[in-house]
What does this fold into?
Amino acid sequence: MKFRSTVGQAPMVGFCEALLQGIAPDGGLYVPEKFPSVDLTDFAGASTPAQVGAIMLAPFARGSELEASLPVICQEAFSFPIPLKSIPSDAGPLHVLELFHGPTAAFKDVGARFLAACFERLNGSERLPLMILVATSGDTGGAVAAAFHGRANTRVVVLFPKGLVSGRQEKQLCCWGDNVLSLRVNGNFDDCQRMVKQAFADAKFNQAVRLSSANSINLGRLLPQAVYYACASLNYWRATGEKLNFVIPTGNLGNGQACVWAKTMGFPIGKIVFATNENRPIPDYLETGNWAPGASVATLASAMDVGNPSNMERLRDLLPDVGKMRAAVSAYPVSDEDIRRQISRDEVARGETWCPHTATAAHVYDGFSETEKAQSWALVATAHPAKFETIVEPLVGHPVEIPDALARLLDLPTHVSDIEPVLEALIDAVK
It folds into this structure.
């Protein structure tokens, strides 16, 4: 399979080239030249994410250097539980897809581990060391750092906005050292993302280092995230004969885009609903038809504080007509006050302790009509609430138990440097 740039001014490349480059030379994002159509009978006997992923992703890697390794790569990436759990509902069937059981307690672990496993096999010691630049609004950087920490011939540079991630998230970003450089940027997430894009566009810098990205702008992050939507919907369809609808918290739109891609391939997915925070470019576009990204707004759901979602470029490439996009997805903004109320209410009503991001999905679902709620829904839980204890614990009235994997990271020493939000500061820090 070949992959093309959304800008359309760069040559098409194979699977491995798309992963290693991260961003196309023309500044666009790589997308499949054509999505494969799945035959669900091909998945007979496949029920785990690793098994489904090996079959689902095979067409994308076919003919590449990674084709033979794909089943083992999927076993490495999907090495922790991703349960679809039923939760109480007075209406129709309601579930939560828990994506936070990985080493950094967030859904980003899936894509980051897949990408790291791929890069390790492609990045031989005879090649120039690979430098991975990653901008993060919270969870991405920690997952990427964990996945790549200690891997040979690779250096990770994590940029995150000063004062705009939770304390425990920041600890996860800064506890590594060794081949991980953590940079605290005096700006917001959009500044971090802009600096990464500028670094890729800087010819002189690119002559000195071999760059790649591990944000969801990298194809290798999105494709494995599509697997858990495929697996959950496939198993639910087998058990009930019904399509599963999803409410997905989204910021940079990678997780939401992954679900759209899984549905595009033919998996039994019904409605796709995006829950955003007070950063509204996606719901505003669906309402008005005008794409008007802006500066990011700080909210309680900090990992979703993205004013210019990168993956909207991929979604608009797939669905260039706003009418078709409205038919395929919907999006609703959620305020901080709504997040607070939802966390407090569902602790009692559903017996669930949500992180602020997952709370946006629950709030959107609760706003559905009774007819809509009669269908089968899954709320996507993107992070463990223990990562946001200063927000969650006062609202639920008790301490949130810390997962063992997260507790181990919190005990490590901190390694971080502060920089200004300009490309020159990034280059100097890297040097």
Summary: The longest helix spans residues 219-240. The chain has a mean pLDDT of 93.
